[in-house]
Amino acid sequence: MRSHRFYSPIELIVGQSIQLPKEANHHCIQVLRYRVGSEVTLFNGDGFDYHAQISEINGKQGTVTVTSKENPANESPLSIHLFQGIARGEKMDLIIQKAVELGISQFTPIFTERCNVKLDNKRLEKKQTHWQKVATSASEQSGRAIIPVVNSAVNINKLKQDHECLNLYLEPKATSRVQDLPKITSLNLFVGPEGGFSNADLQALESLEIRGIQLGPRILRTETAGLASIAVLQSHFGDF
């Protein structure tokens, strides 16, 4: 039977015994009611899964011994950095969760002209921490041993040019499509907020030599556009 998998934010070494982290401990000992000898899988984002066995339960605290490690080898050969126009409500959580499941390597929220979300520095810091937790949980659920980084939000006018990979933004009126692209191994993908990119946003992107690409003749919601694009890109150049 497949063991449950939990994030453990510490260094993991085969042969060591460690106390289960708070959330994993609660789920294993109090929810699943695991006993000594039960097997669990831990990961910390270093690219490996660590198989462990519960060796002791003291009160409500479980201790596990790490028995082996393995590389799950499920990272895509296509590295996608998603730049997402900040959306309202829980849409950002959904976008991050599903984008991680689909295999992105990095995520950066961007403020655009039509972004209706106003966040001061303190709230923005809390949001980033929350979004990183969403990415971690999505990695845990999807079996990824590497956790995509959620970067600090940046204004679209302060983006820097990146010559190391292909740079694309989604635009319904663009003439290029995914099938027109050369074979790629890494790209930055820019997705607008609700209402899309404004003319000023497009000028900022094009000044950095970021090219437009379209995903069919229909206008997609912001929470659909990026995810659909990632799936198509993974199908053409990744591991779908």
TrEMBL record:
Domain of life: Bacteria
UniProt catalytic activity: uridine(1498) in 16S rRNA + S-adenosyl-L-methionine = N(3)-methyluridine(1498) in 16S rRNA + S-adenosyl-L-homocysteine + H(+)
Domain annotation Ribosomal RNA small subunit methyltransferase E PUA-like: ranges: 23-66
Gene3D superfamilies documented for this protein: 3.40.1280.10, Hypothetical PUA domain-like, domain 1 (2.40.240.20)
Example of a GO MF term: rRNA (uridine-N3-)-methyltransferase activity
Ranges for domain Ribosomal RNA small subunit methyltransferase E methyltransferase: 74-234
Record InterPro entries: Alpha/beta_knot_MTases, PUA-like_sf, RsmE, RsmE_MTase_dom, RsmE_PUA-like, tRNA_m1G_MTases_N
Leading EC class: transferase
GO biological process terms held by the UniProt record: rRNA base methylation
SUPFAM superfamilies attached to this UniProt entry: alpha/beta knot, PUA domain-like
Keyword annotations from UniProtKB, A to Z: Cytoplasm, Methyltransferase, rRNA processing, S-adenosyl-L-methionine, Transferase
Protein function: Specifically methylates the N3 position of the uracil ring of uridine 1498 (m3U1498) in 16S rRNA. Acts on the fully assembled 30S ribosomal subunit.
Family recorded in the similarity comment: Belongs to the RNA methyltransferase RsmE family.
Name by which UniProt lists this protein: Ribosomal RNA small subunit methyltransferase E
Organism: Aliikangiella coralliicola
